[in-house]
Known about the structure:
Layout: E1 4-8, H1 23-40, E2 54-63, E3 74-83, E4 88-96, E5 99-112, E6 117-118, H2 123-130, H3 139-144
Antiparallel strand pairs: 1-3, 2-5, 3-4, 4-5, 5-6
Pfam families: 4HBT_2
InterPro entries: 4-hydroxybenzoyl-CoA_TE (IPR050563), HotDog_dom_sf (IPR029069)
Organism: Streptomyces tirandamycinicus
Amino acid sequence: MARHIYSCPLRWSDMDAFGHVNNVVFLRYLEEARIDFMFRLAPGNGSPSFSGGSVVARHEIDYVRPLVHRHEPVTVESWVTKIGAASLTIAYEIKDPGQVYVRASTVVVPYDLAAGRPRRITAEEKSFLREYLDEGRGVKDALAA
Length: 145
């Protein structure tokens, strides 16, 4: 099982009055990693996979420790924990070597923008997602470790 690795820069404006990354900013980091995973790394040359749109149905996030501003980027690791007929779950860890700041998951629903409704995951998309599938290692499992 592969993990998608995204190097996420920290911005000065990400800090809150307490001097650490604001809790809502972590959702932006997850979004950046998810977009990089689903759209830039979509399978096939010129493939339309994942390009038709998607919506977030659910976020779950556990804040493990504060992250303070520095010039080095933070790593966001992403993997898939569930593939359904019309949704998938992506798990994440925002981390540095040896320490985790956030563990999270997102339920994503592919969406047909023209029709204005959710759509099923295609065979090509499922094939791509299976490369990152780890059903036994979701966010709750990682928290127990």
